[in-house]
Amino acid sequence: MRNAIFLPLAAMFLGTIMNVETAAAASLGRYEVFGVEDGDMLKMRGGPGTGYVVIVGLPNGTALRVHSCEQTGGTRWCRVSLERARGLKGYVSWAYLRKI
Description:
Layout: H1 2-25, E1 29-33, E2 42-45, E3 54-58, E4 63-72, E5 75-82, E6 89-93, E7 97-99
């Protein structure tokens, strides 16, 4: 009888935790491009590394939503989308992002 009550409660609890983690993993939050030298732009690339094609240059102050990050070599790359054009997605270096 105890197992008949405990197992459904445990499954419900685990399901709740998994849903929260999935929702949190969907986005790490809002960030802005920061620290790029004057006259230059942060390159949004098609993949996590300098060997990928540049999609667009982003000036300081550009608002982004960070979805995930991964380490490639000595650089932490983040998968991002533009706050004002969410369909535009790519990868940028974490070193040039600041939480907003």
